[in-house]
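Sample A.
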Amino acid sequence: MRGVVLNGPGDVAVVDRDNPKIVKPTDAIIKVTAACVCGSDLWPYRGIEKSDGPAPMGHEYVGVVEQVGDQVKNVKVGDFVVGSFFASDNTCEICQAGYQSRCVHAELMGAIGTQATYARIPLADGTLVATPGMPDADLVPSLLAASDVLGTGWFAAVAAEAGPGKTVAVVGDGAVGLLGVLAARQLGARRIVVFSRHADRQRLAAEFGATDVVAERGDEGVAKLKELTGGLGAHSVIEAVGTQESMMQALRATRPGGHVGYVGVSHGVVLPGDELFFSAVHLHGGPAPVRRFLPELIDLIWNRTIDPGKVFDLALPLEDAAEGYKAMDERRAIKTLLTP
């Protein structure tokens, strides 16, 4: 099969890889219908995160089940399925508490690499959710979004306790932040402020439900947000970047007693204990338990209540993956969809 590998910083290639095989009786093999490039893929692409190449790439995927192991009961050959970027059994105590991304048997799909023609899905019964039927082609991007960025944005909004009557601020205007806006709107937020300097992302944020835009960053952005909120700050803040600046901006933009939902993959983030102590702010986040939300998100997409697939503003064949990475790195694209 063909698959994307990262040889080193800035060096993406599409190469021949061995077709996946059933390794454990709980595995499934899917033919990938669509995959995509994630903002977190840019950390190793930029050399910020070390990667030993050639490393398989990709952890977001939808596709059709081609083969199942002997112990797989919940999905069958021919099902169209959506999975999470973490494989999970969905039965352990941690999964049952709603934190499937920290399953005691969790496996990271990025190590398998789903930017490929086929993919092996471990723990298929717990990881994969079948759609009600074969989706119309125009639903595929939205279902693909559910496998990570929508589920991650949704978890961020839930962790931040976005809801009716709340003012929600979103730090980060990438795909996760934009879908955090969508999630906050669906959860009933009264006011949604997005921090963004990019007109195209501001337009999409407004389409998803943002009511205000703040172009300033850091402490200037915090000051502007407080102007909009009577000096108090937001009730709920979504942090969707993962840098020191973005985390401090999120913390400082939150009113006392408010909540930060942080889902940006942290790189070099250090929280000053005294400021955190006196902020009286709740922090909750980490790798999103996407599997917790998949049934609900698939239903919302299937019934065309939400259209998160709009975050894909560049669609390319798998063979052109290098251009997809480059476009996102240069911020010419919000998110790249790849078709094997």
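Sample B, a different protein:
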Amino acid sequence: MTIASFLSRHRRVGVLCVATLALHFAAIDWVTGRLSAQTDRPSASKPSLMTAQLKLSLPKRVESAPVEEIKPLAEAPRKPRLKPRPKPIPAPEASPSVAAITPAPLAEGEMATSADVLATAGDLADVGVAPDAKPAAAPDAAPRQGGRRYKVNLPPSATFDMTVDRVDADGTKWTGAATMTWHTDGNRYQASVEAGISLLVTRVNLLVLRSEGTIDDSGIAPEKATEKRTRRAETATHFNRDAGTITFSATDRSYPLLAGAQDKTTVPFQLGGIGRGDVNQFGGDIDIQVGEDKEATMFRFQLVGEEEIDTRMGKLVTWHLSRPPKPGSYSSRLDIWLAPGMNWYPVQIRNTEASGALTTQTVSDIKMTDK
């Protein structure tokens, strides 16, 4: 083999290798372009659920002043029931001297005498009304400031499937299911809880809570909350923001409406919004006015710590908040577990009654919903 033929053969091999590499680079460039185009294309999928297991540093504990008791407003005075004026008793035949001092009937256009005015005042005194009585002062309009103001960033809309486990004071155990919903468009919201027990092919709701209202600078601002229990009439709590009061369908009592006031349905989501707003706010006690069936009391939540809980979704890292019993106001303990890695959603709620009965709701599935 001559040197020329050897070089010619290797030249053909080199050309073939260069051509092969060029084709590979062209293919890689085409695939990269397709992937880039798909990445730049807007996604039409639903919002995804954050599932990062966050390990956040707990804020330093800050002592708070004793919680302020909220007293009901003075009830408006009831209208007096007028007593019927007794029929005049016929007087004995007057003597000329008596007839001389008896006032004659008023002529048309004549002014009433002081004796007539005093008689009218006496009639009013009989029914307990002073002639110059003034109407009771109306409560201040709009919510009043009540303690700390919190930075709130409310979580996105979602539906929660929950398992319900209850242990009565005598040790009897019950199981059931609950559905909790939270929907907001940034201006208004709707929230609900439906809890019950499963019977064969159906479920019997034992408790239904519903709440609706607006979103303001203090977070969730309820307008109306309802509660329906089995074999009981539905009750309603009204948050009258124009009048600055909280009123109830089950009683005539009313309370002053404080900024940031909540109902039983919205409390867990308001706490989640406080966590999303600034985790350091949990360094101090969280005081929230809560309107219930017949009263509005101040709930004080304290951060217990970071805990990992077992759920059907797996182990979740949570921040445990607790509202201990308050003698004279409420006798139960309320515990709420928020998941920082899942939009600070409430993933477990537990109520411990004074009798020892225990009810625990634990998340089994979370579905993100569009606004």
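Observation for Sample B: Residues 48 and 368 are 7 Å apart (CA to CA).
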